[in-house]
Write a structure and sequence with these properties.
mainly alpha, 7 helices, 0% strand, elongated
Length: 136
């Protein structure tokens, strides 16, 4: 894993006039992407504006790669075995960097646990869901 000083140096190299230096720095940052994500987040919030911009850009590329790899993994899964919420969360995450799939799955499980007892009566499932979501 790259250390913070090396990450800063690579981010600074993204401003180099030499395209070879920029490509090498980008490749090094993306190669270690998931491992350095938290350090990049911290850098993107503080310090030199140019470095902040580069850190945010690399974070976006790491995020896009992660989404693409997950999507490609889902494409190899038989369609009947892909939970609809997995696809929906992946689509949402492709548009919002901050969304965490585990957190969303947990929230969905909590909603399901709250909804389950309401389905035991004669109430229509859609009505029960609407009541839960819109009639607190």
């Amino acid at each position: 894993m790259l250390d913070p000083a090396t990450i800063h140096a690579l981010l600074n190299a993204l401003s180099s006039h030499d395209p070879k230096d920029r490509r090498a720095a980008r490749a090094a940052l993306l190669t270690d992407g998931l491992n350095i994500r938290e350090i990049l987040r911290q850098i993107a919030e503080t310090g030199n504006p140019a470095v902040q911009c580069h850190a945010a850009s690399i974070l976006q590329l790491i995020h896009e790669r992660e989404i693409l790899e997950t999507w490609q993994g889902l494409r190899r899964t038989p369609e009947a075995q892909i939970p609809i919420e997995t696809g929906a969360i992946l689509i949402a995450r492709s548009q919002c960097l901050e969304l965490q799939a585990d957190e969303i799955f947990h929230q969905l499980d909590e909603l399901a646990a709250t909804l389950r007892p309401r389905l035991s009566g004669n109430l229509d499932p859609l009505d029960a869901l609407n009541e839960l979501l819109f009639n607190f």
